[in-house]
Amino acid sequence: MSECLYFVKRIHDEVEKQVNNALHSDDLTMAQAETLLLLQKSAEKQLSLKELERGLHVAQSTAAGIVSRLVQKEFIETFVDAQDKRIKIIGMTKKGEQYCYIAEQNLEKIEVDILSTLTEAEKSILLILLTKIHQSLK
Length: 138
Hints:
By secondary structure, this protein is mainly alpha-helical.
Protein backbone atom coordinates (compact mmCIF):
# COMPACT_ATOMS: atom_id res chain seq x y z
CA MET A 1 0.00 0.00 0.00
CA SER A 2 1.33 3.40 -0.88
CA GLU A 3 2.24 5.80 1.89
CA CYS A 4 -0.64 8.22 1.16
CA LEU A 5 -3.27 5.46 1.09
CA TYR A 6 -1.84 4.00 4.29
CA PHE A 7 -2.25 7.31 6.12
CA VAL A 8 -5.72 7.96 4.68
CA LYS A 9 -6.82 4.52 5.90
CA ARG A 10 -5.28 4.97 9.36
CA ILE A 11 -6.81 8.45 9.74
CA HIS A 12 -10.23 7.15 8.66
CA ASP A 13 -10.06 4.26 11.12
CA GLU A 14 -9.02 6.51 14.01
CA VAL A 15 -11.66 9.14 13.26
CA GLU A 16 -14.35 6.47 13.01
CA LYS A 17 -13.22 4.99 16.33
CA GLN A 18 -13.28 8.39 18.07
CA VAL A 19 -16.68 9.29 16.63
CA ASN A 20 -18.18 5.93 17.56
CA ASN A 21 -16.77 6.28 21.09
CA ALA A 22 -18.31 9.76 21.42
CA LEU A 23 -21.67 8.47 20.17
CA HIS A 24 -21.61 5.28 22.21
CA SER A 25 -23.30 6.83 25.25
CA ASP A 26 -26.27 7.68 23.01
CA ASP A 27 -26.27 4.15 21.53
CA LEU A 28 -25.54 5.49 18.04
CA THR A 29 -22.99 4.75 15.35
CA MET A 30 -21.22 7.12 12.99
CA ALA A 31 -23.47 5.98 10.12
CA GLN A 32 -26.60 6.65 12.18
CA ALA A 33 -25.37 10.12 13.18
CA GLU A 34 -24.47 10.85 9.56
CA THR A 35 -28.02 9.87 8.58
CA LEU A 36 -29.48 12.29 11.13
CA LEU A 37 -27.19 15.09 9.96
CA LEU A 38 -28.17 14.46 6.30
CA LEU A 39 -31.83 14.65 7.25
CA GLN A 40 -31.24 17.83 9.23
CA LYS A 41 -29.72 19.53 6.18
CA SER A 42 -32.45 18.36 3.78
CA ALA A 43 -35.60 20.20 2.79
CA GLU A 44 -38.30 19.70 5.41
CA LYS A 45 -35.91 17.32 7.24
CA GLN A 46 -37.06 14.50 4.96
CA LEU A 47 -35.46 12.28 2.32
CA SER A 48 -36.61 9.34 0.28
CA LEU A 49 -34.85 6.07 1.04
CA LYS A 50 -33.19 6.30 -2.40
CA GLU A 51 -31.89 9.83 -1.64
CA LEU A 52 -30.56 8.60 1.69
CA GLU A 53 -28.73 5.71 -0.01
CA ARG A 54 -27.05 8.17 -2.39
CA GLY A 55 -26.23 10.62 0.41
CA LEU A 56 -24.62 7.92 2.54
CA HIS A 57 -23.04 6.12 -0.45
CA VAL A 58 -24.41 2.77 0.75
CA ALA A 59 -26.51 -0.06 -0.64
CA GLN A 60 -30.28 -0.12 -0.16
CA SER A 61 -30.03 -2.94 2.39
CA THR A 62 -27.49 -0.97 4.46
CA ALA A 63 -29.62 2.18 4.38
CA ALA A 64 -32.70 0.16 5.35
CA GLY A 65 -30.82 -1.29 8.35
CA ILE A 66 -29.70 2.15 9.52
CA VAL A 67 -33.25 3.47 9.12
CA SER A 68 -34.72 0.53 11.01
CA ARG A 69 -32.43 1.09 14.00
CA LEU A 70 -33.08 4.84 14.05
CA VAL A 71 -36.85 4.24 13.94
CA GLN A 72 -36.51 1.89 16.93
CA LYS A 73 -34.65 4.64 18.80
CA GLU A 74 -37.36 7.15 17.80
CA PHE A 75 -34.92 9.52 16.06
CA ILE A 76 -36.72 9.16 12.71
CA GLU A 77 -40.03 8.00 11.33
CA THR A 78 -40.96 6.51 7.96
CA PHE A 79 -44.00 6.89 5.77
CA VAL A 80 -44.93 6.54 2.11
CA ASP A 81 -44.98 9.41 -0.36
CA ALA A 82 -48.49 10.80 -0.82
CA GLN A 83 -48.07 10.96 -4.64
CA ASP A 84 -46.28 7.62 -5.11
CA LYS A 85 -46.92 4.88 -2.55
CA ARG A 86 -43.83 2.98 -3.77
CA ILE A 87 -41.52 5.68 -2.37
CA LYS A 88 -40.50 5.37 1.28
CA ILE A 89 -39.87 8.71 3.01
CA ILE A 90 -37.67 9.11 6.07
CA GLY A 91 -38.42 12.06 8.34
CA MET A 92 -36.71 13.41 11.43
CA THR A 93 -38.54 13.40 14.76
CA LYS A 94 -38.17 16.09 17.43
CA LYS A 95 -35.92 13.70 19.36
CA GLY A 96 -33.74 13.34 16.26
CA GLU A 97 -33.56 17.10 15.77
CA GLN A 98 -32.48 17.59 19.38
CA TYR A 99 -29.81 14.94 19.02
CA CYS A 100 -28.33 16.58 15.89
CA TYR A 101 -27.18 19.51 18.00
CA ILE A 102 -25.34 17.14 20.36
CA ALA A 103 -23.85 15.16 17.47
CA GLU A 104 -22.56 18.31 15.77
CA GLN A 105 -20.90 19.44 19.02
CA ASN A 106 -19.24 16.02 19.44
CA LEU A 107 -18.01 15.99 15.85
CA GLU A 108 -16.70 19.55 16.12
CA LYS A 109 -14.75 18.69 19.27
CA ILE A 110 -13.21 15.62 17.61
CA GLU A 111 -12.22 17.70 14.58
CA VAL A 112 -10.64 20.37 16.77
CA ASP A 113 -8.68 17.69 18.66
CA ILE A 114 -7.52 15.94 15.48
CA LEU A 115 -6.40 19.17 13.81
CA SER A 116 -4.91 20.73 16.94
CA THR A 117 -1.31 20.24 15.82
CA LEU A 118 -1.88 22.17 12.57
CA THR A 119 -1.59 25.91 12.08
CA GLU A 120 -4.54 27.80 10.56
CA ALA A 121 -2.67 27.97 7.24
CA GLU A 122 -2.05 24.21 7.31
CA LYS A 123 -5.74 23.57 8.07
CA SER A 124 -6.71 25.68 5.07
CA ILE A 125 -4.28 23.85 2.80
CA LEU A 126 -5.47 20.47 4.12
CA LEU A 127 -9.10 21.37 3.41
CA ILE A 128 -8.22 22.50 -0.11
CA LEU A 129 -6.33 19.28 -0.79
CA LEU A 130 -9.00 17.02 0.70
CA THR A 131 -11.68 18.82 -1.32
CA LYS A 132 -9.66 18.39 -4.49
CA ILE A 133 -9.16 14.66 -3.83
CA HIS A 134 -12.84 14.18 -2.95
CA GLN A 135 -13.95 15.92 -6.17
CA SER A 136 -11.63 13.75 -8.26
CA LEU A 137 -13.31 10.61 -6.89
CA LYS A 138 -16.75 11.51 -8.27
